[in-house]
Design a protein that fits this description.
383 residues, four-stranded antiparallel sheet, mainly beta
């Protein structure tokens, strides 16, 4: 038999006591002695060795491998973790804003007030203020003393008592100046007081300087109250133009233009569109007389007769609906015959029209050819 200790405590079952009527074999004398010896050895092993004796305010604590001694608890080595707040004055008044004081109570830190006496001077000192600090100048003694502070201020500066402002570091007045030319990072400016008005955009944008080179977009310049100088044809882009309605009456105004450098030949009596020679335009409401001009280097035909270059008006590109003007070509091949003619038209004011150049030969077997040369072009104007 073996004792339960130190795995568990022994009882009368694991270590039975003999009775007057017990036989010497239940347990035997040897078994009973063995149980007692093993239990004593297990207890000695558990407690360890050491010659100390218990005294008041001590506990039995392990001091090494197989050793122990009576001593006071060592907070540096015997205790780990945090002492529960409830164990300090039962946690009364304990919170995130209080601290444990030397008198055994939880208390709120008192605010600090610096009261000027005969004068306070701090030199070569640096301290950080993370909460508002009130500087009172209403104490006894000298109330006009000078305080020289070399400090890193990380909190707001307030003034109470007789103080009315924070003195400027440079010049006079009540403005606190950090540097002569300070750098301001992402400020919020609620208003600007000056002789002029400066309106900053609420979205991300770039301010344009007076002498800088910039490209303006989405801007409208009122011609009635502004003067634009240096405006010449070379300064206008290919798509620039002036609304004909804003040009003086009685002056021909440009509406549209097209050109080609390709020659073109038609065969037969069906009018055929000259490729790339169609112009779309909107007729201004205050004008309705249109002039359409066509020029080319020369034209010739295979048979004389009513070979024609025509100008048509239509409601879509290439639509040969209404004949506006025409010119007859009777020059045989090899004969230079420059082409330059125009037609006048009176379409509906405000409408969108298309003017198209078409060629037609005198007979089904005849041909008519227009040679563009450097360029053949059609110009549409209105008056």
């Amino acid at each position: 038999m073996t004792p339960n200790y130190p795995t568990s405590l022994d009882n009368s079952t694991s270590m039975p006591n003999p009775t007057p009527t017990s036989t010497r074999s239940t347990p035997s004398l040897a078994d009973g002695q063995t149980l007692q010896n093993e239990a004593i050895i297990a207890l000695e092993t558990k407690i360890g060795i050491g010659s100390s004796t218990p005294v008041a305010n001590t506990v039995l604590r392990g001091t090494g491998a197989g050793t122990s001694a009576f001593a006071q608890v060592n907070l540096a080595s015997d205790v780990t973790g945090n002492l529960p707040v409830v164990n300090l004055n039962s946690g009364t008044s304990a919170s995130s804003t209080t601290y444990w004081r030397g008198d055994g109570t939880w208390a709120t830190p008192a605010g600090t007030t610096y009261t000027a006496g005969t004068g306070l001077t701090l030199t070569s000192n640096s301290f950080a203020l993370t909460t508002p600090v009130s500087v009172a100048n209403g104490g006894t003694g000298n109330t006009t003393g000078t305080a020289t502070v070399n400090a890193n201020l990380t909190g707001p500066i307030t003034s109470v008592g007789n103080a009315t402002s924070v003195a400027s570091q440079t010049g006079t007045g009540s403005t606190f100046v950090m540097e002569t030319s300070p750098t301001i990072t992402t400020p919020t400016i609620s208003s600007i007081t000056n002789t002029g008005t400066l309106t900053l955009p609420t979205s991300t944008d770039t301010l344009v300087g007076r002498a800088t080179t910039d490209t303006l977009t989405n801007k409208t310049i009122a011609a009635g109250s502004n003067t634009i100088s240096g405006l010449t044809n070379s300064n206008l882009s290919g798509n620039a133009g002036i609304n004909p309605a804003n040009i003086a009456s009685g002056v021909w105004k440009y509406l549209g233009y097209t050109y080609t450098t390709s020659n073109y030949t038609v065969t037969g009596t069906t009018p055929t569109e000259y490729p790339s020679m169609s112009v779309s335009t909107v007729i201004p409401s205050s004008f309705n007389t249109v002039r359409i001009s066509f020029t080319a280097r020369d034209a010739y035909c295979s048979a004389s007769g009513d070979n024609e270059i025509r100008i048509y008006r239509g409601a879509s590109a290439g639509a040969l609906t209404t004949l506006v003007a025409n010119i007859q070509i009777n020059a045989p091949s090899g004969v230079s015959y420059p082409v330059c003619f125009f037609g006048l038209d009176i379409p509906t004011a405000g409408s969108t029209v298309y003017y198209t150049i078409a060629l037609v030969a005198v007979s089904s077997a005849a041909t008519l050819t227009v040679e563009a040369g450097q360029v053949a072009n059609m110009i549409v104007e209105v008056c």
